[in-house]
Amino acid sequence: MGAGMSIAGDARVSHQSFGNPFRGMLVGLVLFPLALALTGFNEGDYVTRQEVLAKAREAAHPHDCLDTLAGQSAQTLLFLQGCDLNGLPQWDAGPGSGFDLDNVTGAWMRTKVEMYQWHEVEHSVSHKDGLDGKTTVTWYTHERRWSTMNEASPAHCDQPSANAACRVKGCDPGSGYTYPDSASPRPKRGACNPTALPSRPAHGTRYAQQGSVLLGATAQVNSEQMKSLTSSKLVVPTNVASDPKGSVPLPLTKLSPMNTWWNESAQFLLTQPHEGPRVGDVRVSFDVSSATSATALAAVDKRGLMVPWTSGAKARVSGSSTQVDELMEGDVSLESFFDTLDARVTATVWTMRIFCLLLFLISPYLVLQPIALAPERVPCVGQMIADQVCCGICLASLAIGLSWFLLVTGLCWIWFRPFVGVPLVATALLLVGGLVSHQRKQRGSTRARQKGMY
């Protein structure tokens, strides 16, 4: 701890001894096989999904939106482009809510309920010490924010810094000061959250019943496809006021037009007064799917329900899907549809590759970390030596992790696609060999020149 720093309030001081990094070493030993497994699955899944899309391109059969699906085989991959969504259900605000919605239709209805609550934030600062480890000072601050979850009340003091006095204690129900008003920046006593959010209206998304929404004349949209309809529009209840009706008593167990008002600038139903939100105030919004047409690529069953089409491709790894059941909003051409699917597959595989690379880099660093702490036992120059060793470990971890990542990825491609993987790895080895040979020649030339000088 720095000179002159003192600890006040509820700040916590902990010491990490020399033995702790060995626990990190065990974590590193676990992360390495995890990185191997994830890399293998990611590359195998990528190859599988490419083969599935290739077969789907060949098998896709355009189908007119107005034609019936009678006689279609479940083995036929249908492409329905830009068909109208028919049979969209009409929604209300939920049972017993009391909010009136005027002719609201869509594939789904979303209700978002948020409460203004206390949130405890943990802060910490660490530094190495002379005890073969490091010391960590932890303290907490209290903030107020909107949340869709019922958050636990703060349990620690509110401190602006580690050495500051405690401004506010954690939640103290016995203080009788549960819901501080917004006029005071900090309550004088406990910071407590309500025990639950209002029960009505319920937070969440409601979807139309599977098969009730039609794409075109007879194709029935399934539940998974409805989740692809992401565009939405805001819905405003018709029986709410545009100004608050006095100060709503807290806590709230149920929302209704009598204790809420519509704020046009915030685009929310609110329970708060004009002065600002209080802990325990609630805000609500209603959204409905705005999609009116869509494009689908799937098979259909005997009832006309769209179902996943089985491609017949071989799954290269366990858990990789070989089926196609896709839906996109609007009028999308066949070529654009597959371009979008290809882009999704590429984005997924590269995201996982980056994640696996990080695991390969972190694993050797954690395993080698105890080596950096050993020199700290040396008097006077121990810390300086440890810092140098730590830099060396970082460079070694980078080299080891990157090498393993490239090696494992290359071996995966050799296993899954030998005609691609073998030339790829052979080319990489030739490049590495060429670089090594070039460096040796340069060293030999340098030595020859040095000998000629003498």
Written overview of the protein:
- It is built from five helices and 19 strands.
- It is α+β, with helices and mostly antiparallel strands.
- It folds into three domains: 18-60 and 337-450, no CATH class; 66-112 and 199-332, no CATH class; 118-175, no CATH class.
- Strands 1, 6, 7, 8, 11, 12, 13 and 14 form an eight-stranded antiparallel sheet that branches. Strands 2, 3, 9, 10, 15, 16 and 19 form a seven-stranded mixed sheet that branches.
- Helix 1 runs antiparallel to helix 3 and helix 1 (20-59) runs parallel beside helix 4 (382-416).
- The two termini are 57 Å apart.
- Mean pLDDT is 83; it is low at 176-188.
Describe the structure using short key phrases.
454 residues; alpha+beta; 3 domains; eight-stranded antiparallel sheet; seven-stranded mixed sheet; 5 helices; 19 strands; 34% helix; 22% strand
